[in-house]
Amino acid sequence: MARRSKATLRVSLSDASTPKGDLRGVLAVLTGSKPGMLVPIEGEDLTVGRSADAVLVLDDDSLSRLHARFFALQDKYFVQDLGSTNGTLIDGERIEQPVQLVDGARIQLGLSTVLRFMLQGEQEFLTAQRLYDSSVRDALTGLYNRHCFEDRFRAEFGYAQRHGDPLSVLFVDVDHFKKVNDTYGHAAGDEVLRQLGAFLIAQVRDEDLVARIGGEELVLVLRGIGQEGALRAAERLRAGIEALQIAHEGRRIPITVSVGLCSLGAGSAIETAAELLARADAALYQAKESGRNLVRVA
Questions:
Q1: Per-residue pLDDT reduced to its tens digit, 144-172
Q2: How many C-beta atoms surround the C-beta of residue 274 within 10 A?
Q3: Helices (H) and strands (E) in the chain, counts
Q4: Which of 17, 96, 158, 168 could be disulfide-bonded to 230 (CB atoms 3.0-4.6 Å)?
């Protein structure tokens, strides 16, 4: 198929056609970090890049910190390159100015990130979003699953290491969870995990990562937060969980958690994502050995 010329790609606002019906513009991540993610284009400033200042942060060294901007204007959707080093391409053609997007357009950012622009109705978007969520989230708690966590955490660690930013990991484990199941039943144990997951999601920032990686073991990754701030957060979460009023079939279920913390910061000797996780896990073991319902720092 012949590539479009730059002249063909340039579209003025007066020439742009209006999407039919109640369709919305959506970006689907095809390759790179976060494959399968769907991001609606709403308002006038959906920025994409590798900086934490971008709305959509993608871990790709070939992206500029703020690489491109997607926006809606007069019921039309556009992409604008923000002076990136490696460029923004539509269907293989590098753009030099804002360009209107058509349904099915393939957008390449840098060398390895590829997005697809789609026009979708509300129901179509929700169905696709549910499919994506089911692939990355734990069905019981709504937290990210282990597979998604491992992919996301490697990206977060790599970004923090490259830019010298702090990064903290909290391992959270429900104390005596087997006793909860034995005393109240497995349905009650499930309710504990559901409410614990909802509590953690409500307490953290959008940019933080919360996952269930097995059984009653949960992990939080706090972007841009060093040991001191992470310790305050861990203590707040521990106390908040102890105060939760979890009930099942009319019976209150008291729970506490043990927390292991490890941070990546300036001068840290930690070299790999696996080592950071292992140290947080070791700190969790220390919390349990010291009596539980505690936070320990690696």
A1: 899 888 888 888 888 888 888 899 999 99
A2: 13
A3: 7, 18
A4: 168
Give the residue ranges of DSSP H helices in the chain. Answer: 6-9, 122-136, 146-163, 177-184, 186-203, 227-242, 273-289
- Binned at pLDDT 50, 70 and 90, residue 220 comes out as very high
Distance, in Å, from the CA atom of 203 to the CA atom of 128, rounded to the nearest integer, reads 27
Active site residue 216: yes
Of 42, 156, 216, 289, catalytic: 216
Tell me, yes or no, if the pTM score tops 0.85: no
Question: Helical H runs in 106-176?
Answer: 122-136, 146-163
Cα–Cα distance, 213 to 284 (Å, whole number): 14
User: Average pLDDT in the 272-290 region?
Assistant: 95
Task: Say what the alpha-carbon torsion angle 106, 109, 112, 116 is, to the nearest 10 degrees.
Answer: -30
DSSP 8-state secondary structure symbol assigned to residue 223: E
